[in-house]
Amino acid sequence: MTEFQRVILIHYHEIGLKGKNRGRFEQRLLLNCKDLLRAFPVIDIHRISGRLVVFLKEGTSLTSACACEEMVARIPGVARASCGFKCPRTIDAIYEAAVAALGEAGPFETFKVQARRNHTDFPITSMDMNRLVGSVLCEAFPDACVRMKGCDVQVDVEVIQNAAFVYAKSIRGIGGLPVGVSGKLACLLSSGIDSPVATWRMARRGAVCIGVHFSGAPVTADTSSYLVDDIAQVLAQTGCIARVYRCAMGEYQRDISVEAPPALRVILYRRLMFKAAERIAALEGAKGLVTGESLGQVASQTLENIAATDDAVSMPILRPLIGTDKQDIIADAQQVGTFEISSQDAPDCCTLFMPRRPETHARLDAVRAAEAAYPVDAWADALAETAQVTDYRCSAYRPARKTETHPAS
Ligand code: ATP
Ligand code: MG
């Protein structure tokens, strides 16, 4: 039997809709895939009419092709990933590749063939190819039968200018847009369950994400910072985070806790976090802030408190989880791979100097008056300036200015 070259086809519906921007989006997805698949036996990745094709090295096993396919499916912008073969543009080669592809598709009882020609100079029409390849497959798999609607496996044949691609094993991708086509955002990243998911969702909408974390250091241990690093390493596997700023907020919280009305402390801490994050965003050229808040989930996440924290900054604050239930957020966290890390307990600034009864319906004038007792703008500047920066691999990231960096641990 001929050994055909293994390929992964990358489908990207949403990018296809983007008219004029399409070329830029395809190019970004291609560069992201090249970078993120560097640990796999990839020779090259090319664009062919409405798809990307990942060419795998000769002799790549089915197992490692499938591992590569699974990785591809996790990359933002990928609607579907298919594992198959490249073969010569002859009907006999197509037959042979189709038998091989269907043989690797896992258990099935019904199938159909979906053929396309991008060049009408191929002498056999798509309809005829469907019929011809279908009957060869029926002979090769006598227990299987053809079903047009609701079949177990679809065998795709795509004939292009000088080759054909044949695949039967497809998995759904996470969809969205390639990281790097929607600008940059600063994401308030705790070590909890929600904010990593919020960050991931914005990366899936094409944003380059910068994390900003506030620890209770030096008053508490900075365990939460290490968990945030673990979370960032997971997000970085699919290019969903570019760098993380870690700010030590404990001393400022202690100052606030000494005199501010206890019920307003949490809002004052949060306003300080937002202000510092806004400064970091400005340094990075990021155009908005992101949080993992979900309406009503905890005391600080009421509409009044959201308004009272938003008032501290002028940048737009995006809350991708605002209408999402915890169970759905947890399901996303499990899919992304951050859930287990986030389930570990770590003291951070949220657990420090907490009042017994935090305000749930903060009045803006009372909040502003309480805050006026502190040099919060100078504190926010200091938090941004003394933040520790860690870089993660994200090929779409462009720095806005030179900063001192520490390599990821
Ligand atoms: P999470 O699971 O993301 O921590 P949460 O349900 O625990 O969210 P809060 O602790 O009230 O809710 O935080 C709301 C949002 O504020 C978080 O999603 C995050 O965006 C931001 N935030 C909270 N704590 C921190 C922190 N220590 N550093 C950076 N951002 C934080
Ligand atoms: Mg939290």
Explain briefly what this protein structure is.
With 409 residues, this protein is α/β, with parallel strands linked by helices. The protein contains 14 helices and 15 strands. An eight-stranded mixed beta sheet has the order 2-3-1-4-8-7-5-6.
Folded structure, characterized:
- The structure is a single chain.
- By secondary structure, this protein is of the alpha/beta class.
- The chain is built from 14 helices and 15 strands.
- The strands form two sheets. The protein has an eight-stranded mixed sheet with strand order 2-3-1-4-8-7-5-6. It has a seven-stranded mixed sheet with strand order 13-12-9-10-11-14-15, with helices on both faces.
- The longest helix has 20 residues, at 265-284.
- The chain is elongated and about 80 Å long.
- The chain starts with a strand and ends with a strand.
- The model has no long low-confidence stretch (mean pLDDT 93).
- Magnesium ion binds at residues 190, 192, 350.
